[in-house]
Amino acid sequence: MKDIKEFTDRIELTINKLSKQREFIMRAINKPELLFDKTSEMFHRKDAIFQIMSVFEDGQRKMHIHEFQDLLASIVIEFFRKEVEDERIIVKLKNPNTYPSIFAVYYDDCEVMQFNIFERYYGMRYRKSREEIEKHYSDQVERHHESLERINNKLLQIESFKKSPIRYIFKYHKDRNVKLYKKLFYGLKELLSFAIFSKRMAKTIDEAKIKYVGQIEESKERQQKYYNLEEDLEKMKLRDDVIAKVEPIFIKYNYRLETDSHRLY
């Protein structure tokens, strides 16, 4: 069994650490760069200071750890406000209702960068080069054209069927890569079905045509809305301009560049 002194020493260590952290926060309020520069040395996200900020007494929530996180965030935000002379570039907690939350840099509400003051890193999720954007756009255009071609082929088949159902059925089964008896069997079966259910089949064909025409319009709208090369390149340039203004701050304070996107959420 451990001696009582070991427990009291541990309590004393915690008290001393809390006292130093309190003094640090008070200094950082007047000198915000301290929090940005020294948090990784002064705090660990599982420290007692964070645990004691979650208080539930007399059946009521008296204090929440998120409120303390908001206080620290306000100091970091003030630091960036002084460092970056552009009111459109702002810093916020990425997930304010989660502890711990990393920070994110925004430009007109568009997220550009992320950083973590506890682990001293920064990074950019999904940063693409001009070549990657152009390839992505080219691939999307190619898939769009392939999709339109498939749908147009369906419409051509529908028109061919409506123009001459019997000729269409005969040609379809004649061109199938199956044995002759299967061509005859299924061809005659379909001709018989058409003779009996011609009105129903005609209605089904009309409904299919409406569906495919709608798919063409949807595909064109989707292509126009989501895949605009010039717009994407302009966003890339704007993003790179913002990064050029902000990244030197992280380099100055020796933050490391994080490339694992999972750590940037």
Overall tally of domains: 2
Spans of at least 5 consecutive residues whose pLDDT stays below 50 are: 194-198
Rounded mean pLDDT score: 79
The main sheet orders its strands as: 3-4-5-6-7
Strand count = 7
- General form: elongated
Main sheet overview: 5 strands, mixed
Alpha-carbon distance between the termini? 44 Å
Tell me what the structure shows.
- This protein is of the alpha+beta class and 265 residues long.
- It has two domains: 4-119 and 239-264, no CATH class; 130-227, no CATH class.
- Helix content is 66%, strand content 11%.
- The protein is built from eight helices and seven strands; from the N terminus they run H-H-H-E-E-H-E-E-E-E-H-H-H-H-E.
- The strands form two sheets. It has a five-stranded mixed sheet with strand order 3-4-5-6-7.
- Strand 1 (55-57) and strand 2 form a beta hairpin.
- Helix 1 (4-30) runs antiparallel to helix 2 and helix 5 (130-163) packs across helix 7 (180-226).
- It is elongated and about 100 Å long.
- The two termini are 44 Å apart.
- The model is unreliable at 194-198 (pLDDT under 50).
What can be said about this structure in brief?
The chain has 265 residues and is of the alpha+beta class.
Question: Key terms for this structure?
Answer:
265 residues, alpha+beta, 2 domains, five-stranded mixed sheet, two-stranded antiparallel sheet, 66% helix, elongated
